[in-house]
Amino acid sequence: MNPADPANPADAARPTGPAGRGARPTPGRRPGRLPLLGALGGVVAAFAGLAAAELAAAAVRPEAAPVTAVGGAVVDLTPQAVREWAIRLFGTADKTVLAIGIVLVLAAVAAGAGLLALRHLPAAIAVTGGVGLLGAVAALSRPESSWKDALPSLVGALVSAAVLYLLVTAATRPRPAGAPPAGTWAMDRRGFGRLAAAVVALSAGALYAGRRLGAYGSAGATASRADFVLPRPSVPAPPVPAGAELHVPGLSPFLTPNRDFYRVDTALVVPRVDADTWRLTVHGEGVTRPLTLDLRELLSRPLVEHDITLTCVSNEVGGPYAGNARWLGVRLADLLREAGVRPPSQGGPADQLVARSVDGMTIGTPVEAVMDGRAALLAVGMNGEPLPFAHGFPVRMVVPGLYGYVSACKWLSELRLTTFAAYDAYWVRRSWAQQAPVKTQSRIDTPRAGAEPRAGRVAVAGVAWAQHRGIERVEVRVDGGPWQQARLAAADGVDTWRQWVWPWEAAPGRHTLEVRATDGTGAVQTGVRAGTVPDGATGWHAVEVSVRAPG
Ligand SMILES: Nc1nc2c(c(=O)[nH]1)N[C@H]1C(S)=C(S)[C@@H](COP(=O)(O)O)O[C@H]1N2
Ligand SMILES: [Mo]
């Protein structure tokens, strides 16, 4: 698509006939700088519109800002293949890349509209209105939206159209009478420049104010997190066994610090939920006592602490989307029982628990898994701290043994009991499996791919996970040779990963290291390579290194 083409004023500006001295200038008929000013005017107008929209969104809600709303819609509509590609290419920066992409497309359209405006201002204003409408529709399509969400985009379009009108008028205005005759006529470039500069300055101010006000809008949430004192667990987790941490340089720490914990979600702005107004509802099939709880009520129940490794189904073999934390929360099974829920094995009608977040994410978990005795939690604490906003404050789900997209709903707001036959959650509608237990995986953390260790003893080390089954053995091999048993760190339980280390007598040259794990049931990790879709990657992690000759 090239919105500039149909009415490219560069073509229009080509002299098509005599424009004799003293002829009245027709806007857009003058060759030279005018198209550039038109495009510039369009971009400046769009910037003003975006800034105004951002300011308006601060008053409505951050999700209603046009770039965020369009970005959210793009994320939801993106075909699986493209999404995979984007995640592979950009990793967790994918959201920033998306926002930049949207802004660039908008700038291109705006430049086109500016060019169009020189020939036909009403058409350009119509384009601006159309873009605004698109933003409004995107905002209205977002989860939990209200009619107000359309306002930022509409305000933005209005401001943008007004600025475009003013700039184009300035750019195409003939020099005032009495001005020195520079050619036959000239646009009032200085007037345009001054106006454009003023608009840019004002818009930058509005953008800044919008961001500040947006932050102010979530001040309640920030304060509620700061004031939130983690309750003491009635069942504390035993201390992590000393031997669980091998202290090998380059090896992932046993507990992942919150700031290093991977983040995977569809939220373009992290929801900042105010703990004081947060509510959780529990309802649906087989619920005989529907519940609505605020945070205080939820936490009046006994709390347990449990170490659980969380992994993402989008993690490639050897990838970074795995983290281990000490979670504090209420046992989900107890809460469900309180609501009258029975698992399918005890005759309950619902086999799927659908968790919904404040940002409209839906995550479906087997009721049976949640109620089979494992530490499925409604977590409020992560490594001794209230959940960080990015990890689901105030309450999220964590279920050992299931990938995050089928178990770990952040910013939880609702639990609904239904069946897998009746309902597909968000990712299931996007070609991922309904059910997805974690597959046994192992990763070499050190040496890294491409490392150049010196010949001699090299510590090969990493982590292996098979949540809720545990890790029984890890083996390493060099250049496809025999598998050699690695030394396992002490187990903290079956729900966490386990560090391992293998002392390698490395000879100079290029070598390939591979790792595989055996889970607590005795099943060996498969070497068959499979991609992440639909239910998690398989294969052995391989790392190539070049061993240098001894010192
Ligand atoms: N509300 C919400 N919860 C969510 C997601 C999401 O996009 N939105 N992503 C899920 C996925 S795919 C994973 S792997 C985990 C990641 O949790 P983390 O970001 O705390 O590591 O959150 C899960 N919970
Ligand atoms: Mo995930």
Could you walk me through the main structural features you see in this protein, from its secondary elements to its overall organization?
With 551 residues, the protein is α+β, with helices and mostly antiparallel strands. The protein has a 5-stranded mixed beta sheet with strand order 2-1-10-5-6. Strands 3, 4, 7, 8 and 9 form a 5-stranded antiparallel beta sheet that branches. A 4-stranded antiparallel beta sheet has the order 11-12-16-15, with no helix packed on it. It starts with 8 loop residues before the first helix and ends with a strand. The ligand Nc1nc2c(c(=O)[nH]1)N[C@H]1C(S)=C(S)[C@@H](COP(=O)(O)O)O[C@H]1N2 binds next to loops.
Q: What would you call the structural class?
A: alpha+beta
Give the total of beta strands. Answer: 18
The profile of the biggest β sheet is:
5 strands, mixed
Q: Termini, distance in Å?
A: 60 Å
Helix content: 25-40%
Number of domains: 3
- One letter per element, helices H and strands E, the order comes to HHHHHHHHHEEHEEHEEHEEEEEEEEEEEE
Q: What fraction of residues sit in β-strands?
A: 15-25%
Q: Enumerate the spans where pLDDT stays under 50 for 5 or more consecutive residues.
A: 1-31, 181-186
Q: Mean pLDDT, nearest integer?
A: 90
Shape: globular
Structural Rg:
30 Å
Please give the order of strands in the largest beta sheet. Answer: 2-1-10-5-6
Multimeric state of these chains? single chain
Which molecules are bound besides the chains? ligand MTE, molybdenum atom
Number of helices: 12
